[in-house]
């Protein structure tokens, strides 16, 4: 097989130029987190853990049974807490990606770091291995809020971590912040924004608190023991953050992402643009030419799944309706929105159908929540971003309507082209 296609007995797919590697290990599970993670304890050290060693063997097996090439333009080591891995372990993973696919010149290689789990030597080693973009899981600058959310690091750890990143000369780095943590007040949020901006980050990811099902916070919420900011206060905090970040020159290029010019995350842009990527590891998903391959979310399940794979596992087709929902919802997260001419090329819907909005979406346009300009459809700023949940839900209803008249039950045969 040539290096440009993924052969699975029936078809040849164009291959992704991006890869996500899931490193599921964390010291402990944060109280709001429902990601596929494996808590190892506060004293854990990836280099000495048999559990980590076994998982990395599986991950390497999965990568090495993938079809080769083309060279990767973006790699993302996410988790979990990838900084629990030793330099050797990261080096081996990147060496394997180089051998299996190659890395394009100037490839973006991002690694998520927990502020309390790396030192200068480790960071230097990760960078020498090829990492050139760092994402720091900061979340808050208030120690009491960090502790109350089950986080292990403190504000001092954040300052030390950022100093290390700067001393190492890593120009492309990001910090994550969470609004809406229990106990967060507008004054504390203002202080968090002040401290974040004082560090001059070139990229900030700003999330509203999401409480995963079955998490400690979920249990406390059911028991009435969680004191969360009201919805209005939470929204005001996000608005204030947007105002402060944009005043500092960080442009909002996606609902949750702000960057100085040239610092947007190229890897995440692949997801939002409906591109293809390899996903490797427990809970990871690959997207390959309109097909998806999802792995089990538990360590045990992933190990068993991998044993059952005689060769590169085959991705499953995604129905046309689901594909359109994905492209629309992820694409609308970007400030530039979606181009309906391109959507029409990727989905079996006539352009005319995509250009005709539902009355509900027409109302959203009239209210400034949505903008429809030629083939472009995007969220209005700032109100479309502020009320994005509602607008995106309305977009999904529109897709239901588009596929409701004449679409097959499996969503693979929508309205006939005009
Ligand atoms: S560090 Fe991140 S991935 Fe790990 S438990 Fe906390 S929120 Fe989840």
The gross shape turns out to be globular
Label the structural class: alpha/beta
> What about the largest sheet?
9 strands, mixed
Please tally the β strands and state the result.
Answer: 19
Number of helices: 16
In CATH, the architecture of the largest domain is Alpha-Beta Horseshoe
Top-tier CATH class of the largest domain: Alpha Beta
Radius of gyration (CA) equals 22 Å
CATH topological fold name of the largest domain = pyruvate-formate lyase- activating enzyme
Task: Estimate percent helicity.
Answer: 25-40%
Low-confidence stretches: 1-11, 406-418
In CATH terms, the superfamily of the largest domain is tm_1862 like domain
What can you tell me about this protein's structure?
The protein has 418 residues and is α/β, with parallel strands linked by helices. It has two domains: 5-272, tm_1862 like domain (pyruvate-formate lyase- activating enzyme), CATH 3.80.30; 320-404, Orthogonal Bundle (Arc Repressor Mutant, subunit A), CATH 1.10.10. Helices cover 39% and strands 21% of the residues. It has 16 helices and 19 strands. The protein has helices spanning 50-64, 87-100, 120-129, 143-148, 155-167, 186-198, 216-222, 231-247, 266-272, 299-307, 320-332, 340-346, 351-355, 359-366, 383-386, 388-404; strands at residues 5-7, 12-14, 18-23, 25-26, 38-39, 72-79, 103-113, 133-139, 172-179, 203-208, 251-254, 257-259, 278-280, 285-288, 291-294, 316-317, 338-339, 370-373, 376-379. It has a nine-stranded mixed β-sheet, sandwiched between helices. The protein has a three-stranded antiparallel β-sheet with strand order 14-15-16, with no helix packed on it. Strand 7, helix 3 and strand 8 form a beta-alpha-beta unit. Helix 1 (50-64) packs parallel to helix 2 (87-100) and helix 11 (320-332) packs antiparallel against helix 16 (388-404). The longest helix has 17 residues, at 231-247. The radius of gyration is 22 Å and the shape is globular. Mean pLDDT is 91; it is low at 1-11 and 406-418. Residues 26, 29-30, 33, 35, 37, 79-81, 114, 137 line the site of iron/sulfur cluster. Residues 26, 29-30, 33, 35, 37, 79-81, 114, 137 line the site of iron/sulfur cluster (SF4).
């Amino acid at each position: 097989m040539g290096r440009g296609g993924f052969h699975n007995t029936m078809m040849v797919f164009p291959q992704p130029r991006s890869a996500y590697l899931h490193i599921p290990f964390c010291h402990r599970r944060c109280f709001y987190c429902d990601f596929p993670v494996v808590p190892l304890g506060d004293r854990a050290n990836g280099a000495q853990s048999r559990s980590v060693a076994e998982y990395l063997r599986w991950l390497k097996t999965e990568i090495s049974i993938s079809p080769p090439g083309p060279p990767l333009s973006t790699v993302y080591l996410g988790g979990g807490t990838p900084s629990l891995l030793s330099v050797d372990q990261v080096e081996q993973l990147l060496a394997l990606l180089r051998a299996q696919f190659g890395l394009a010149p100037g490839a973006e290689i991002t690694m998520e770091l927990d502020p309390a789990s790396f030192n200068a030597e480790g960071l230097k080693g990760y960078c020498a291995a090829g990492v050139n973009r760092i994402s720091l899981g900061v979340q808050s600058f208030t120690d009491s809020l960090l502790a109350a959310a089950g986080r292990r690091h403190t504000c001092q750890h954040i300052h030390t971590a950022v100093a290390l990143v700067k001393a190492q000369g890593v120009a492309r780095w990001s910090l994550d912040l969470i609004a809406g943590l229990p106990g967060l007040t507008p004054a504390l949020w203002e202080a968090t924004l002040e401290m974040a901006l004082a560090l001059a980050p070139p990229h900030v990811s700003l999330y509203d608190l999401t409480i995963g099902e079955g998490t400690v916070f979920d249990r406390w919420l059911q028991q009435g023991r969680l004191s969360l900011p009201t919805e209005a206060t939470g929204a005001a905090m996000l608005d204030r953050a947007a105002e402060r970040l944009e005043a500092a020159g960080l442009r909002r290029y996606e609902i949750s992402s702000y960057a100085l010019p040239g610092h947007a995350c190229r890897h995440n842009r692949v997801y939002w643009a409906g591109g293809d990527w390899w996903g490797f590891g427990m809970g990871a998903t690959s997207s390959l030419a309109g097909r998806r391959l999802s792995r089990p979310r538990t360590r045990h399940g992933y190990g068993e799944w991998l044993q059952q794979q005689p060769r590169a596992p085959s991705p499953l087709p995604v129905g046309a309706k689901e594909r359109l929902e994905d492209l629309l919802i992820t694409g609308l997260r970007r400030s530039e929105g979606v181009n309906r001419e391109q959507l029409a090329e990727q989905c079996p819907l006539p352009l005319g159908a995509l250009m005709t909005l539902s009355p509900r979406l027409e109302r959203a346009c009239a209210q400034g929540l949505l903008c429809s300009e030629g083939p472009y459809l995007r969220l209005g700023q700032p109100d479309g971003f502020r009320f994005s949940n509602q607008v995106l839900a309305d977009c999904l209803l529109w897709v239901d309507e588009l596929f409701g008249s004449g679409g097959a039950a499996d969503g693979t045969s929508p309205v006939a082209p005009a």
